[in-house]
Design goal:
By secondary structure, the protein is of the alpha/beta class. Helices cover 44% and strands 17% of the residues. The strands form 3 sheets. Strands 2-1-3-4-5-11 form a 6-stranded parallel sheet, sandwiched between helices.
């Protein structure tokens, strides 16, 4: 299959002239355009990509935007969790005949990027708001098309949200620890404040109170929400001789994995001395030593739900809803 570059060389024309002829742009004579098109057709040039680009320009409403918002990057990273969300969104948009464009937006140039997206006229947008806070909401008002927030929720904001039932997941995990070890559970809390972690804290303390225990007696360690960061932070507090709980719920699997590594290096056996439960069920859970008990989040299903809600909203115009996706506890050997 011949390329535009090869056509240009064969016809002794510039690549720019061949591109203008193939794309129907002004700048070349009708005679040259006819010559290029005839040669392209004869030699099997793939016109489908031109047609796709032309369709995208003429029908921007057929394009769906997935904006991945990164404020500090400590939570939203290139991990399987977020790639599975993307896969779910892409599967649903493709199924319904839309094209998905994925873009990263960083806090420092967020207003410019949101303004640019508004001018491009997408059919709608799914916005990964994991690292967003209420101060970022004015950015959403820049977009003139329907929006669905993924992995976050803001009370009083007029936007659809699809997110994890964080309270339920943390409640399940903490209740399991209390029941199994017959003692007060500790909490490996993220040192970065985001909505998901705040809700997981609510679930943790709800389980503590439900068991008749005092929340003030729970041992809490604040750790960086990454494997390396949590490892370093946990080593530091262990070396300071801080009191340890018999078992811990961690805000995410990365915190759990980092803390387990530090505990093991300082001679603690898991789960015999200290038990740990994570949250998210990332692939690493099957490879930690011991394997990590965790809360499973149906990530692709979350992505699909967000895309489906957005496409329904584009077609019918619907009032905002909050959709919470349930979780389940996956028992392995760390607790």
């Amino acid at each position: 299959m011949i390329t535009a570059k090869e056509l240009a060389k064969q016809l002794n024309l510039s690549e720019a002239a061949v591109s203008m002829a193939l794309n129907g742009k002004v700048g070349v004579s009708e005679k040259t355009r006819a010559r290029v098109l005839a040669a392209a057709e004869e030699q099997g040039y793939d016109f489908s990509r031109i047609k796709e680009r032309q369709f995208e320009r003429e029908h921007p409403e057929g394009n769906i935007l997935f904006l991945i918002y990164k404020k500090h990057g400590a939570v939203v990273a290139d991990t399987p969790f977020f790639s599975e969300l993307t896969q779910g969104i892409e599967a649903e948009t493709r199924k319904q005949g839309y094209r998905l464009l994925v873009r990263y937006v960083y806090e420092e140039d967020s207003r410019t990027q949101f303004s640019l997206a508004a001018k491009e006229g997408f059919g709608g947008a799914v916005i990964l708001g994991t690292e967003m806070d209420e101060g970022d909401l004015p950015l959403l008002s820049l977009l003139p098309f329907p929006v669905v927030l993924l992995d976050t929720y803001f009370e009083g904001a007029p936007y659809d949200s699809v997110l994890i039932n964080n309270v339920q997941g943390a409640y399940l995990a903490t209740g399991y620890l209390i029941s199994k070890y017959r003692t007060q559970a500790g909490y490996l809390s993220s040192s970065y404040p985001i909505n998901n972690f705040s809700e997981r804290a609510d679930g943790f303390y709800k389980a503590i109170r439900k068991s008749g225990l005092s929340p003030s007696r729970s041992i809490v360690h604040r750790l960086t929400p990454s494997a390396e960061g949590a490892y370093s932070d946990m080593l530091e507090l262990l070396d300071r001789g801080e009191e340890l709980a018999r078992c811990y719920f961690a805000d995410n699997d990365l915190i759990a994995a980092g803390a387990m590594r530090a505990l093991t290096e300082r001679g603690k056996r898991i789960p015999q001395d200290v038990a740990v439960v994570g949250f998210d069920d990332m692939p690493l859970c099957a490879y930690t030593s011991p394997t990590l008990t965790t809360v499973r989040v149906p990530k692709q299903e979350m992505g699909r739900a967000a895309a489906k809600r957005l496409l329904d909203k584009i077609k019918d115009g619907l009032p905002p809803v909050k959709i919470e996706v349930g979780t389940s506890l996956i028992r392995r050997t760390s607790a």
